[in-house]
Design a protein that fits this description.
The structure holds two protein chains of two kinds.
Chain A lengths: L7 H7 L4 E4 L3 H13 L4 E4 L2 H7 L7 E4 L8 H10 L6 E5 L4 H9 L4 E4 L4 H24 L5
Parallel strand pairs in A: 1-2, 1-3, 3-4, 4-5
Chain B lengths: L7 H7 L22 E6 L4 H8 L7 H8 L1 E5 L1 H7 L5 H4 L13 H13 L8 E3 L5 E10 L8 E10 L5 H17 L3 E6 L1 H12 L5 H7 L1 H10 L1 E5 L1 H6 L10 E2 L8 H12 L4 E9 L5 E9 L9 E8 L1 H55 L6 H31 L5 E3 L1 H18 L3 E5 L7 E3 L1 H22 L5 E8 L4 E8 L27 H11 L3 E6 L5 E8 L5
Helix pairs in contact in B: 3-6, 9-12, 13-14, 15-16, 16-17
The chains are: A alpha/beta, B alpha+beta.
Chain lengths: 149, 569
């Protein structure tokens, strides 16, 4: 987000949207990758929150799809790490958990959607569309205002 | 307790005894020339009683009447010391002899007076051995003055080896201190005179009885008789409180009330006494005078020298509140264990759900993605092929997880011990009783008392019963029954099998589900993961038994399992 305000929209338009997928279960993350692929959405998969955080330092992702229960850093903590960094990246949770308290805390931290596994493809893609629209629109607007547009 | 001269301190306190002054006509008057304890008794007022007794019309209380009217005319120094008060001889003169003479010695004294004054019965001895706590083998002798001098005076001497150089009075004083101490002791004490048992025990020994416990069992009337003849002679303040009596007098009398609520205790107390034990203790129940039942620790201290000390002490400690606290603690502990187990089950269910759900999620997404590839104008068959292979992998993985969970029940090397199925049911009920109560489910339990033992693993079989019980409570909750009811029973079945049945009043099992209800992950519950009944089946099968379900004719499901009887070896 360090890009000059005037170039915000241009940059976004020129760079393809990339979605991060974090899940410790390989079959799950591959299946999500393939689903996004069939819709023409580029994605990158990570086996752990730590691997993703290391890669995300450049802020190259437009949306994060993550599991909740993972060894070491779980999905809830992952989202908090992002927010602590000042990132507004939309986060979508897909989990086996039906625990209401965890869901609420994820949503309070700004999660855009919370799905219980297995999620239907249509529901996930719809949430992604919302996330990407908000991301592009929201950040774009925020970076364009100073230019007096 | 050694033989010793009288204490100089006490002798000094009393001062030099004044010579007796019964008059010059009495040659025996100087009682101080006797080394033994001597005294002169004035019987002038009791002549009519003496005459009546001699005439055979004494009445039942003649001993007391005679002695109460007999006044002390004089005492020698020794008597004053032994029997008297600190005020000494002057204080004793003119007092009734009953004020100083110990009660157990009164019949002997009265009879000796009768012998000396009226020669009644004719030729009766004027000397007798008496019992005393101050002398060893004391000899009591009476006589009257020769030649009709001082006709109303009976002389008395008490000879014997002093076994306690303290005076009777100091003994009494120390007895008083002892009584005070006992009275204020923080535990309830009953002083019991168990001497009547001595005669009974002697007779039993003569009759060759050695196993008194079984003798008492065969003759319950003996214990009852003993409870009636053994008497409480004193009770302290705490005992009065314990029994909620109005005063100590209400506790004095037959010891019977002590054993009202625990008649078996009386037998064991008698047995220990008979066997010559020094003490006996057990926990018993007593019924208080206002009808409450209390738990007490009874400690009996038997007389160590039965020929001298006939006092048995019973101490009673009220432990009702302590036991109640202990019971509450045990309950808390049980609640804690149950909660821990339930939360463990919850943890287990969550992690199983997660593990099974992962491959399922992948399968669903891969299948949906395949459909999207196929729906394209130019279907990407290569991609679909790849996804289908992944679907197969994930399905296999899910199946592995299922196998692993199934294996969990059998993984631990099961124990094979001989078990009582009824006990297993009782133990299992401990885990779910709270659950049943919380849901207001009425439980009826009918356990057969003629059940063959089974061979198996206690924990696993408990788990089966717990699972079936939880399944039943959930079925009731699901059916929305306001008045839940579960009937469980055990019985001895065909081929010497032990059987267990549980019937709930839920909605029963749908006809099409009867065949697959024991399959893994079969559930009709929103939150269930469907492994409870599958585990039940694998455990019962591993025990060589069978489990089945049917719908009860009165509605609700009836689960039923049977286990082969343990081989006798």
């Amino acid at each position: 987000m360090a890009a000059p305000a005037a170039h915000g929209r241009t940059l976004r338009l020129s760079r393809p949207t990339v979605i991060a997928i974090v899940d410790d279960d390989e079959a799950v993350r591959e299946s999500l990758f393939d689903l996004l692929q069939v819709e023409g959405l580029p994605a990158k998969t990570f086996g752990s929150a730590a691997a993703f955080l290391a890669d995300d330092s450049a802020g190259g992702f437009d949306c994060l799809i993550t599991d909740v229960r993972m060894p070491e850093i779980d999905g809830i903590e992952l989202q908090r790490h992002l927010r602590a960094r000042g990132s507004l990246m939309p986060v979508i949770f897909i989990t086996s958990l039906t625990d209401e308290a965890t869901r609420e805390s994820a949503l309070l931290d700004g999660a855009i959607a919370w799905f219980t596994k297995p999620v239907t493809d249509e529901a996930l893609l719809q949430a992604l569309r919302v996330a990407l629209a908000r991301n592009g629109g929201g950040e774009g607007a925020a970076s364009q205002h100073p230019s007096g547009n | 307790m050694a033989t010793a001269p009288s204490s100089p301190a006490e002798a000094g306190q009393e001062g030099e005894a004044t010579p007796l002054s019964l008059g010059p006509e009495c040659p025996d008057a100087d009682l101080n020339r006797f080394d033994t304890a001597c005294c002169a008794l004035d019987i002038s007022r009791v002549r009519p009683i003496i005459a009546a007794v001699a005439g055979g019309a004494g009445g039942p209380d003649w001993v007391e009447a005679l002695l109460a009217g007999t006044r002390i005319a004089d005492v020698n120094q020794r008597t004053a010391h032994l029997l008297g008060s600190y005020e000494g001889r002057d204080r004793m003169i003119g007092q009734p002899v009953t004020a100083y003479w110990p009660s157990e010695g009164r019949p002997a004294l009265a009879e000796l007076i009768m012998a000396a004054v009226a020669d009644y019965p004719t030729g009766a001895p004027r000397t007798r051995k008496v019992t005393s706590i101050a002398f060893a083998d004391p000899l009591l002798t009476v006589w009257t003055a020769e030649g009709g001098q001082c006709p109303d005076i009976v002389f008395l001497s008490l000879a014997g080896t002093v076994i306690d150089d303290r005076s009777l009075w100091t003994l009494l004083a120390s007895d008083e201190r002892y009584r005070n101490l006992i009275h204020h002791l923080p535990s309830a004490l009953l002083q019991v005179d168990s001497t009547p048992m001595t005669a009974i025990f002697e007779k039993l020994r003569r009759d060759g009885v050695s196993d008194i416990a079984s003798y008492l069992d065969d003759r319950p009337e003996l214990a009852i008789h003993s409870r009636n003849i053994v008497r409480v002679t004193d009770a302290n303040r705490k005992a009065v409180q314990l029994f909620a009596a109005d005063c100590a007098d209400h506790l004095i009398g037959s010891v019977d009330y002590l054993f009202m609520a625990s008649p078996e205790t009386a037998k064991r107390v008698i047995t220990a006494h008979f066997e010559g034990r020094r003490s006996y203790a057990e926990r018993m129940k007593v019924r208080t005078f206002d009808g409450r039942l209390r738990d007490v620790e009874l400690s009996v201290t038997y007389p160590t020298l039965p020929e001298r000390l006939d006092v048995t002490l019973l101490s009673l400690e009220d432990v009702t509140d302590r036991l109640r606290t202990e019971a509450q603690l045990r309950q808390l502990q049980a609640d804690y264990t149950r909660t821990a187990r339930i939360s463990m089950l919850g943890e287990l269910a969550t992690s199983i759900a997660h593990e099974v759900n992962q491959p399922l999620a992948a399968i669903v997404t891969n299948a949906e993605t395949s459909l999207r590839w196929l729906a394209r104008e130019e279907p990407n068959l290569a991609k679909v092929g790849q996804l289908t292979a992944r679907i197969a992998d994930s399905a296999r993985h899910a199946s592995d997880v299922v196998q692993r969970i199934r294996g969990m029940a059998a993984r631990r090397t099961p124990e094979r011990t001989v078990l009582d199925l009824n006990r297993i049911v009782d133990e299992a009920l401990l885990f779910v009783r709270h659950e049943l109560e919380a849901r207001s489910i009425e439980l009826s339990v009918r356990l057969s008392d003629d059940l063959p033992h089974v061979r198996g693993d206690r924990v696993q079989l408990q788990q089966v019963v717990v699972n079936l019980l939880l399944n039943a409570t959930q079925a009731i909750a699901q059916a929305g029954r306001p008045e839940g009811r579960i009937d469980i029973s055990t019985a001895s079945g065909a081929d010497r099998a032990a059987t267990f049945a549980i019937h709930d009043n839920g909605s029963g099992v749908a006809e099409e589900n009867l065949d697959r209800i024991f399959g893994s992950f079969f559930t009709t519950k929103e939150e269930g993961i469907g492994i409870g009944l599958a585990i039940c089946q694998s455990i019962i099968a591993a025990h060589g038994g069978t489990i089945a379900v049917s719908n009860h004719r009165d509605g609700g499901a009836l689960f039923h399992f049977s286990l082969p009887a343990a081989e006798e070896n």
